Please model this.
Amino acid sequence: MEKSVYDRFWQHRESLIYQYNIGDIGKDEFIERNYEYIQSMNVSPYRRVDNFKKGIFNYQYYNVLAKYYQRKASRSRKGSEVRQAHLDRARYFYEKKDRATARMIELTGYTGITAYFVRVHSQALRNKLFEILFDEYPRIVLHSTDETILSDLREAGVFTEGKRHSIVHDYINEKY
Model:
């Protein structure tokens, strides 16, 4: 039986996470290999997200592209048009990722969710980056800085104030 796009993507991602965790690859290579794999799959994100698997695929798809362009921007000359173009693309994909995040939260009906701010080294992300965990999907760790999502999580009573150590602390704090 042929594996679905989601299953193939997830298997590849798990392999890269394993390689990252044992030190075979660093964050740059992790991002690069994820980007190359997404490109080689020649697929688009789902238009209609009616289940969690589709949502997580879209989240990861947009997250990979956002990180790739953020990384390219960090390597471009400050103030250059090229750098700004990469930053604009990264921002666009981060916004798409946040829409996927909001949809996944919506699909759960705000139940079985834990969310909190994470400790980060980055001044720009301090008191902004939060982590979202799902009881039903323990291997899924989402991150966002989106104020609307944060407000919705607080309103639903699933956001815990204060800062915690991220599940993927080393990864989120490693610079590009």
